[in-house]
Amino acid sequence: MSSRRDFIKKSAIIGTGLAMSPSLSFGASDSFKGKKVKVALIGVGLRGTNHLNNVLLRDDVLVSAICDIDPRRIKIALDQIDKAGEKKPKVFGKNEYDYRNLLEMKEVDAVIISTPWLWHTKMAKDAMLAGKYTGLEVSAANTMEECWDLVNTHEQTGSHLMILENVNYRRDVLAVLNMVKQNVFGELVHFRCGYQHDLRFVKLNDGKSAYGKGVEFGEKGISESAWRTQHSLLRNADVYPTHGVGPMATMCNVNRGNRFMSLTSHASKGIGLHNYIVKHGGKEHPNAKLKFKQGDVITSTIETANGETIIVTHDCNLPRPYSLGFRVQGANGLWEKDGDRMYIEGESKSHRWDDSKKWLEKYDHPLWKKYGEHAQGAGHGGMDFFVINAFIESVKRNIAPPLDAYDAAAWSAITPLSEASIENNGEPQDFPDFTRGMWVKRQPYNWIKDTY
Ligand SMILES: NC(=O)c1ccc[n+]([C@@H]2O[C@H](COP(=O)([O-])OP(=O)(O)OC[C@H]3O[C@@H](n4cnc5c(N)ncnc54)[C@H](O)[C@@H]3O)[C@@H](O)[C@H]2O)c1
User: Fold this and answer.
1) pLDDT digits (tens, 9 = 90+) for 232-282
2) Which of 1, 6, 68, 119 has most ligand 1 atoms within 8 Å of CB, for mutation?
3) Does position 168 have pLDDT exceeding 90, yes or no?
4) How far is the CA of 406 from the centre of ligand 1 (A)?
5) Does the C-beta of 316 come closer than 6 Å to ligand 1?
């Protein structure tokens, strides 16, 4: 996965109208009978314009509306659409609730929501109530009430919600999922994962460029520092669990024959953001006086109904290279991303690691075999192509998405549960059963196919 710095470089190019590769032709489906899917984007910041680029490259999508309260982002998005040779969409964003006018448009089949976290559930609920097929960026919800809101609104309306977790589509993750499905690891026992990404230069900037120097945030910040940093100031919780836990949950069929049962969390002290502010803004800077509530390293352990444990780490305020730290372990062996190594009993030399490369190539997922070359420029090493492809193909068929409202709720619930556990000295917290018992009967999703 490319780093955020690569991502910003790509986004900057996107802003100037990159056509990364020729558009692909996608098959029609029964519900749309060859007609294009009319997509609206709510939030066209850095992430939203990345999604915009990916939908513009498809011949089965028409961008019918965009919404953002920042006119600079609207301009970038409109330039992108113009350079792709597409018609100007309807534009919304005159106030924070103008997205509701967008949702009234008949000419919108599906929406992609890429706004700050506190808007996610509100917008997704409104979109489902308006009958739109809803794609929602990560994390989906901030509180337990919001997690339930997503599930309840989906059930009341019948409108589908897909959590747009791109890491589920990473090439190594899908190859390992393929190995899981072919029982190479045997019965699954333990997972490790997390979001381990030095975001100090994202959470703090100069208010002029997203990755610029500077130690401002909130009203004086720009892009994610305008909203994300507030969560580190006020919450001692794993506020961004889904990149790590999403792929692991899929491997052990959470909400489909398995479920998260309980969690314990612990937080280290929090010194990283303060040190960064002092280093780059001086100890007299007003932000140097703030006490950030979030611990720098937050470690949660989840137990599943089928007896697996999953360790999820949130580590974004200290200097470190990027890693989601995946480990997938079963009765026959394990994969560890850190070290790029694999061990399968009876196949690997006894007590010796294999380089994971040969295993990942052998079990390369059919989707990557088919679309890998096309996906390369799509963002985050290609996985952004696949998550949008899964979304659009599900919309076209009007079927439940691979990553649904129950997944969005269960994965996002880690945030309020970790907060409660940390607050109570690591006391175990129970996950609600968002499927209301249906997890027992729900069949595992068929992941091994080359369509979406
Ligand atoms: N999956 C990934 O790899 C990935 C990567 C980056 C960001 N994200 C997620 O995408 C989302 C957006 O992140 P970003 O980096 O693009 O942030 P950003 O700050 O660059 O963009 C957010 C945009 O939302 C707009 N906005 C805010 N309130 C609005 C409202 N009420 N109506 C309309 N527009 C509104 C802002 O003006 C801004 O342009 C976040 O949830 C983030 O976690 C995911």
Assistant:
1) 999 999 999 999 999 999 999 999 999 999 999 999 999 999 999 999 999
2) 68
3) yes
4) 22
5) no
Asked if pLDDT for residue 223 goes beyond 80, the answer is yes
Nearest to 46 by CA among 82, 81, 23, 70: 70
CA-closest residue to ligand 1 atom 7 = 47
User: 85 Cβ partners below 8 Å, 6+ apart?
Assistant: none
Pocket flag, ligand 1, residue 199 (CB < 6 Å): no
Residue 115 C-alpha to ligand 1 middle, in angstroms? 3
CA dist., res. 89 & res. 139, Å (int): 27
7 lines ligand 1 (CB under 6 A): no
Q: Which amino acid is at 85?
A: G
| Alpha helices, H only, 60-211 | 71-83, 99-103, 117-129, 144-157, 171-181, 200-203
Residue 85 near residue 92, CB atoms below 8 Å:
no
157: CB partners within 8 A, 6+ apart: 128, 129, 131
Question: Using a 6 Å cutoff on CB, does residue 380 contact ligand 1?
Answer: yes
Task: Please give the Cα distance from 437 to 417 (Å, whole number).
Answer: 20
pLDDT in tens, 340-393: 999 999 999 999 999 999 999 999 999 999 999 989 877 788 999 999 999 999
